[in-house]
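Narrative progress, year one. The postdoctoral researcher (J.K.) led the effort to move from monomer predictions toward full complexes, under supervision of the PI. The following entry was the first complex the group processed end to end, covering 680 residues in total.
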Amino acid sequence: MDTAHLHRLGEVALPGFAVGLVGGVTAGGLAAVVGQPTGWALTTMLALGLPLALLGGGYGLLIAYGRVRIGGFAPVALYWLVGFPIARLIHEVATRAVLTGEPSLPNDLIGFLAYQGIVSAGFAIGFLWLHERLAPRWWRRVSGHNPLAERVYSGYAAHAEAMWEAKQARKRNRATR
Amino acid sequence: MDTSETPPAGQPSGEATASHEVDQERVWRAGKLEPMPIRKLPDAPPSIHLLGPTVFLVALGVGMGESYMWPRLVLVFGPEIRWLFLIGVTLQAIVMLEMARYAMATGESIFFGAARVFKPIMWFFFTVAILVYIWPGHLSAGAAAFEELTGIPWLVTACVGLILVGIVFSLAKIIYNLLENVLSILIGVLVVGTAIIASLVGSWSDLGSTLGGMFAFGYFPDGMMSEAWFPIVVGSIAFAGPSGMQQMWYTLHLRDSGAGMGSHIPKVRGLRHAGEEEKMPSRGFMFDTSDPDEMHKWRGWRRWVTWDAVLLFWGITMLVTISFTVLAQAAARDNPNVAQLIESGEREAALSAMSDSFASVGGPLLGGLFFGFIALIGLNATLGLFDSFSRGQADMTYHFVPGARRLKMSHLYAGFLWGVIAFGIAILLFGPADGPSGVLDILAFLSTFAMGAYCVVLLLVNNRMLPKPIRPKWWTNAIIGFGAVFYLGMLFYSLFAYGVVVS
């Protein structure tokens, strides 16, 4: 895989990466605001934000390769049902490692994962919401030099074009009346 | 009223038209006001375009009711009380679909529809909106949380916030687009953040009891039917999801986002761009309900709004409120003082104690996060409420105050917006030192009454002002009728049985 191809993949994955990162950064950022030690805030930002961001980017790639339906809720919910508990587990283990010096798993691992799985549905709604807001605009911006982004954007564009044409038709009707 | 005898929309009915040009036009007559010309219904967007105008409703609905009132009831009566929440929110989802029916079929607001039935009903809503929504109570809750977070006095934040809201909406080229973008991002961050906070502090057992409680139908603890608690329970059900007139304003947002026949109505613009506004038509439009193609498109629009309503509104309201209940339970478990404060109704003190409790468990991080999200909820509610209030009042003024059409809709919108901002600042600075909670109590009473009233209006408007093929089914009417009895019945039961209004 050459650098140019990697660059294109990165561009397509960027919106999902950014949205995933928002979760961790919001948590870490607020920690800094309330005077939490920088180290603690950074741990949360990295240990939660990074896994969520990587998984978010992964979702963008799945869309780009046509593996999941654009904007559909069910695929996103399934994706985060697996992904969110993993990200939280990484965060939990890393935080324990920073606080106590040695990494350890949560006491009730099954209960922990099950609970995170349920909460993931909420995260999935928010993720899809933000992703659908940001991604199409970004993909359009980079579609000039990125064929991958162009392909996925064209799905959105077809819809937008139909709406725009309907609007123009209405304007013409008004003008001729 | 001639609607039941009126020929189905689409059939020519050339009477009562003055000019020769309009003489040829096919119209739909609804009530005694100006008939609606027949126009084409646009195609419904595909489901992937799922981010519709429900964002506003969610923004308004995900307010203090979810973050405070329900956790309080859960702590007092146990999680089983949440079956009432489920009923309240589900009822609101059906109301939302019915509000959308009229707005999408005509491009008119529900206020206009009410005026078609009987004009004084519309003036009633015009007055209630002013009485209820000029109080800046909703803003102070978020600003108080911001003070806890940053130390900036809440009064300063509230006043600066009010002026900022006014400037933002005045400068926007097309208000709807800006509002939708800003609110969408805020709501997105709120939803993602709520999920993460819940994932950090909650546990499997908290969630299990909260979810299970929603299906404890018929659970009436003894204490609930008392003078002290019944009014609070009624108020909390009214506050579940979008309360008060927010559902009525939803019809204006649907119109402005071009849903259904709303696509034939120009958008409202910010004050700076008011000059570019197209002439606002004096009434809405109707589509040809005798044309199978048009009916096919109509069903597409109904699917779109159903998807919108159920997934976004119902899902997010449930998510946020379940999360906050889990948070309240976690806080009360760690610190019994929290339970006491929440039960006594000291909202600010309780929120502060909840934050402290989270701070003691997960470090200041969680305490700060909690206040950050209370502030965010306050900001969302303020943005949405001010815009919606001004939109609704401007719409009624433009169409029904003699001479108002000399002004543009955007000018009227700006007038109401800055009016409510100026009044808000004056109240904050010199108003009764009663505190924000006092204002919310009055609001709850009038909200409940308005909600009962709009259920009646919906029944009248959708069954008498729309062509037969697109009227609601009998079971939808039954649910909306139940809503009217539910809201008004509980309100007056509370008044007569206990001698107190809802709170």
